[in-house]
Fold:
Amino acid sequence: MTLADALAQFPRERTWLLPALHALQHAERWLSPASLEAVAAHLRVPKSEVWGVASHYPEFRLAEPGRRVVRVCTGVACLARGGGEILAACERRLGVEAGETTGDQGVTLEALDCAFACGSAPVAQVDHHYRGRLTPNDVEGLLTHTTALRTQPSTGRGGPPAALPTAGSPGARFTALKREAERRRTGARLAVGLGTCGLAVGAADTFDALGAETERRGLPFRVVAAGCNGMCWAQPVVEVLRDGKPRLTTGPISVEGVPRLLNALAAGIAERQVAAGEQFMAPQRRVLLERCGMADPYDVADALRHGAYGAFARALEDGRPEQVIEEVRASGLAGRGGAYFQTAVKWAACRAAAGAPKFLVVNAEEGEPGIFKDRHLMEGDPHRLLEAVLLAAFAIGAGRAILYIHGEADLSAERMAVALAQAHAWGLVGERILGSDFSLAVEIRRGAGGFVLGEETALLESIEGQRAMPRTRPPFPVESGVYGKPTVINNVETLFAVPSIVERGGAWFAGLGGGRGTKLFGLSGHLRRPGVVEMEVGVTLRTLIDEIGGGSSTGRPITAAVVGGPSGSVVAPRQFGEPLIPRGPVNPGTGGVVALDDSLPVRTAVRTLLAFNARESCGKCTPCREGTTRLLTMLDRPLDIDRVKELSEAIQLASLCGLGQAAPLSVLSGMTEFPREFGLS
Structure:
């Protein structure tokens, strides 16, 4: 395929700059000078600006890599589990340092800020294929072999219905779709956890072996793909799902363990990790996660059978978008991206704003090391997110929605694309949905890295084909957002709560977590049971670390916890009993919890977080661009605490966006709670 052929699919408008760069990098594995010139000519954007955008996003390559690219994660969660040793072993084996390519141009070795598969740490990527739970003994195989990332759909049962209903109210048409979904019911299933964490530790091989052996034995089970149920520590996990019987969860199930599992099922023996599984699951309040691990992400009929799109169909039948906003208001739902701004306030302001079309933007960038919940949701239950998008767009009067998904989150993007195509085929997305006057066009866009994309106006700039830099406010996005039109931007976790709120009522959600609902947490680091959990807001770190996470995986005491990633803080054990409440003594932030024993010094963890913030500064404002770099230099020398505090205060007060303002928090909390580690009294 020529460069011109690759670009022909894109309209000649600047907004398609990032998708065009992605397409050419996918075709050539990097962005050559010829590629950049071709993009500039096709989109009619100055070459200097194309280069400026391409060089701004860390996932775009402006130098040709080796035939294979090995990236070893060195985020805090992987460092705690030995990621640094894995990288060092790769350097010795290849004879190059991270960031270099072997002399024969065979292998490019890189350090990776985060692989976002923290529950399977330590993790590496080989040509975008994940390998997890690595040890130094795995390095030879890591460098010489690769395992294909297989994400097989179950059986293709998500195909379109024979005919879409063309008469009746939205409710009546939806009932007809439900009947079609019920007609496709197949009985007992074995759902294999093919999320990113499971694929990294061999779940695709378990899937293949389970399917082949079930067929050979003639057992009455259908083997399907699923996402992770949150038990990343136990992957590969198999869920046994039978009508009228309790859900049966077992894992880890290796290829060698498949015959034993099937023998137990054939004999009617309930084989299960009772102690570990129940201790992990029982304390949770699973609302957003209720279908993860059981839902077939490749089958819209499965989603419909289990309630997906029902709340949306009833909202259409009712015909009162303002009522959806009022239920969200009554629920007290606040943004789960870290800012905790009231969702209903955004929605109402956008609905009242002048201008059309209105937009809904789903921020699925999730670029903070140690945070991996949004990918977990999209991989495990993509139709729930689409229903949430429909409800939100209906409520605010939006005619267009954009799902902005991290450029490295390939599995999330693939499953969302399949779900979107199926929703179109079943008449749940598009023009005059279910015969109503409501229409919604939904498109998927991919990011290209950049922590600053978590800031909503920087994400808007990226959609428009610009460098990702925050805008000054006002005007706020609800008045002038993408393309200058009224826009609501919500993060994935926030939207995932909406279908249940509309279905069960805002008062029900407000009855959880002291009026704050539930919150997802990604547990990683030195824990026996790392994974994704859902708890009522107000849970303590002690509960998360000891009761659910199983305590230390090393036998050494947990001496610190990094909460909220690079924008969060380092918490000492004396605060583990504090409730995790927004703007409380311990803020949950985005929900990442990396538990550490004393084998990883707090100062090393803090330096890792700050170095990430310094690298990821968009460069727009001096306090963040220069201040984080100078603060990092100070950490590498004997500390002058007064100078550190003075500079931190300047960064916090003068940075343009919340990400820059939060950059010094880990340094300040680390010095306060662990003064000896920083050479202080």
